[in-house]
Amino acid sequence: MTQRRSGGETGNALVMVLVVTIAISGLLYASLATTTVDLRASAQSLDDVRTTALAQAGVERTLDQLRGAGRKFNTINPMQGIQALFAGGTYTALAAAPIQVGSEVFGECSATATAVVSDAEHMVITIDSTGYYPFAPVHRPPGAPAPRRKSLRVTVEVDLEQSKVFDNSYFINNWGWFYGSNMFCRGNARSNGQFDIAGYSPTVTGQPTYDRLEWFGSTASLSGYRDDNADGLADGGDGGVFAGWDISGAQNLQGNGALAKNQHEFQDRIEMPNLSNLTMYEQRATAAGGTISVAGTTLVSGVYGDDAGEKQNLYLIGTAANPIVIDGPVVVRGDLVLAGVIKGQGAIYTGGNAYIPNNLSYANPPATSRPADNSQAATETWLAANKDKDFVAVLARENVVLGDHTNATWRSYVSGWLAHSMNKSREDAGEDGIPNTRLGKDGTAGTEDDDVLEDDGLFSVERYTTLDETLGLIPPGLTVGDVVPGSGEDIDGDGVYDDTLTLADLDLTAALDPANWGGTITGSVTYGSIASTSMARLDGVFYTNHAFAWLTLPSTAIQMNGALVSRNESIIYGGPSLNFNYDCRLLGGSASLIGDMLPRTLSPFWLHDWMVLDTDPNVGVVP
């Protein structure tokens, strides 16, 4: 049986259908609208990520240009290179430049930099970088929508600081080695290449380092403890062995350096200061009024070899009764012979070789070579007690030659080690400046980390360009097309290719007589009469970006009190032990006791105060 419906009921049913249809349609529309908004928001978010990344790339490229400017002026003063970029005010690093990898362009960027503070050894720079996607406004095609953009402002600080090579008792800008179980390094040992222990068991105690040293009257205060081993403790247990490659035979180490946390492999390379041009150091020596005197007679005032009648080479032998007295920094333009007893505080830069024929000892040395332990308190106590004791640095543009280099045994051993494959000095070491790395860290040929420039028979370097000339980045005496000193494979920074070091590089270039040498020499001298193959005492800080060559066979322990910084190390020793005792008066960076006399390098750039700008500060920058 079928029930018959009235007209009113039919009308109500139709209304309900319409309501439901409208509701469903509304839901569908809302869903579509939401999806569209989400897609647009996602696209905008993606554009924000892109433009931020492009702006960050602009910051990095600007920083790279600043570093490059410092590098191109490093024979004089790297800070002056950076300051040269701002001679016209604001420096435009990028002008609507494409940011690309290979042939793929990801967008464009403009970046400008302004020197807020520009002092002799400190700069504060703001970098304004704008990333544009897909192109900068100046490249906007007619009718195209406005590009997306993001602008960042970054504040950067950079300083001239005491080179960090002086944080080490033993630093080698090559492959380092400790071949001897009776070797003791009371300080840090570091190499820019592999550090090799082989089958020996030397001892490395390590040395905690600090950013700054301050004096409050006679009280020393160290600050900025560097937690090398990242254990969160400032307990004096830091320092150890550092290598730009691996540490071979690390399991045989003794002392604090035997701890895994104090063995630091594959560290960033530390650049050695460039002494190829001593002009800056001559200016410092003259301004500081540095002197060397013996028996009350001043032999050097600022620079030796710059006055009429002065010899280029300086001969200095001090005795207990008449020690060599140094006060401040000085420069010797030629070679230097230095031995005996020395007193005072200062630095001697030499334009040639530095010869140390026999023991070199302080007249008034620190009471002990090291603090009682590596704690900060003990170190500060030691510093306060020895602040005014003798402290000297010898820094050679060429080599440091110790002992009797005219002796046949000396020459045989040193010559063999200079020619050793682990001690390569030929400037064909590749992009990283370190020999024996052609296969890269993975040891496999044909992979991305290969150093293909090594041993290719070419001197691969950077050369000054017309743009460098326009920007004022070519130091006096150099011109467009000349090698940028220290670039590429120019390891010693003199802009000239150097082949393997030989004994000829270590020999005297002038006879030892008053016609060729000034100083304490009074007549013709044979080198063997002042030299020894049994040296056992060396006080001071020694630097060379060539060879530190020495044969010594004493019957007593060898004490090296200070620091050794070298590219190639050819030490052959005998006797009970070889002891490297780091002089803690080097601690504190540029504020160390003679930090103002040692070579300076640019500090890493410190970036802070990142901020996003609402407006585009580079809108007017055009290519």
Portion in strands: 25-35%
- Average pLDDT level: 91
Helical coverage, percent range: 10-25%
Count every helix, treating DSSP H or I runs of 4 or more residues as helices: 7
Structural class: alpha/beta
What structural keywords apply?
623 residues, alpha/beta, 3 domains, 32% strand, globular
Characterise this structure:
This protein is α/β, with parallel strands linked by helices and 623 residues long. It has three domains: 11-154 and 607-613, no CATH class; 166-269 and 423-450, no CATH class; 276-405 and 502-602. The chain is built from seven helices and 31 strands. Strands 1, 2, 3, 4, 30 and 31 form a six-stranded antiparallel beta sheet that branches. A five-stranded parallel beta barrel has the order 21-22-25-27-24. A hairpin with a 2-residue loop joins strand 16 and strand 17 (297-301). Helix 1 packs across helix 2 (78-84). The protein is globular, with a radius of gyration of 32 Å.
How would you summarize what this structure contains?
By secondary structure, the chain is α/β, with parallel strands linked by helices. The chain has 7 helices and 31 strands. The strands form 4 sheets. Strands 1, 2, 3, 4, 30 and 31 form a 6-stranded antiparallel sheet that branches. Strands 21-22-25-27-24 form a 5-stranded parallel β-barrel.
Fold topology:
Blueprint: H1 7-72, H2 78-84, E1 91-101, E2 104-118, E3 122-133, E4 148-162, E5 170-172, E6 176-177, E7 183-186, E8 189-191, E9 195-196, E10 203-204, E11 210-216, E12 219-225, E13 241-243, E14 247-248, E15 263-264, H3 279-288, E16 291-294, E17 297-301, E18 303-304, E19 313-318, E20 324-332, E21 336-350, E22 354-356, E23 360-362, H4 376-386, E24 391-396, E25 400-402, H5 408-418, H6 466-471, E26 517-519, H7 527-530, E27 537-552, E28 558-573, E29 578-582, E30 600-602, E31 606-613
Parallel strand pairs: 5-8, 5-28, 6-9, 7-10, 7-29, 8-13, 9-14, 13-15, 18-20, 19-21, 19-26, 20-21, 21-22, 21-23, 21-24, 22-25, 24-27, 25-27, 27-28, 28-29
Antiparallel strand pairs: 1-2, 2-3, 3-4, 4-30, 4-31, 11-12, 16-17, 16-20
